Structure formats: C-alpha cells, structure tokens
Amino acid sequence: MTLLIGLALAGCGRQKASGPADSPKAAAEETEAATDPAVQVPAVPASQGARPPRTETAGQPLDGLVHPFMTAQLRRYVAENGRLPKDFNEFARAKMDSVPRLPPGTRFAIDPVTQEVKMVAQ
C-alpha cells in the first residue's frame, strides 16, 4: 500500500513537455488565460516575504490523492452529524480506529469542496 502511494505521488510531479505538437489554438488559449486578470495572482510585497501555500482555500479543491475508505467514512460522519468535522483530527477520533501511515512530508486533510479525505503535502 505504501509503495503504491509513493508511486502515485512520484507520478504527480510530471509536466507536459512543450513541443512542436502544440497547436496555435492551444497556445492562444494559454496566453489568454495568462493575461486574464481573474486568473492572475497578485504579487506579494517584498516586506511580507514568501508565504507557504494555503491548502484549505475556500472554493478551491485540495490537490492530493483521495483515500476512498476514509472518504466513505467522512460521508457517513457528515450524514450522521449534519456537518463537516472542524479538522481531520476530529474526524479521526470519531470514525477511525487507527489512521494509516503516510509517507514523510504528507498529511491527511479534509477537502471541504469535494467532501473527500485527501493525502496532501505538509
């Protein structure tokens, strides 16, 4: 199981190679998306420095590997309690006898948008 999760995470970092096969239409769409003010992220002032990315952003699904069993347990929790748990620890105490081990540098998080339990980077 750990090997499968490790392999899945290793494959997540691949990027599409740009090459002559890209069509002009695709390039135009990328340029349009890059210049769209709704898509652009505002610059951070130098005085504030770099901040770590937020994982629980409202309206944006978390980027991570879904854990099917814990997601099913989370949906049972929501059905019984009528709400999402405050955090993963509240859910784990209520619904899990034990929590599976994770690779170093990862943690479980509840995605409030999709109502799934995902393995995300710390």
Can you describe what's shown?
- The structure is a single chain.
- This protein is of the alpha+beta class and 122 residues long.
- The protein has a domain at 65-121.
- Helices cover 36% and strands 11% of the residues.
- The chain is built from 4 helices and 3 strands, in the order ααβααββ.
- The chain has helices at 2-11, 24-35, 68-81, 88-95, and strands spanning 65-66, 106-111, 116-121.
- The chain has a 3-stranded antiparallel sheet with strand order 1-3-2.
- A hairpin with a 4-residue loop joins strand 2 and strand 3.
- The radius of gyration is 19 Å and the shape is globular.
- The protein starts with a helix and ends with a strand.
- The model is unreliable at 33-55 (pLDDT under 50).
How are the secondary structure elements laid out?
Blueprint lengths: L1 H10 L12 H12 L29 E2 L1 H14 L6 H8 L10 E6 L4 E6 L1
Antiparallel strand pairs: 1-3, 2-3
Q: What keywords describe this structure?
A:
122 residues, three-stranded antiparallel β-sheet, 4 helices, 36% helix, globular
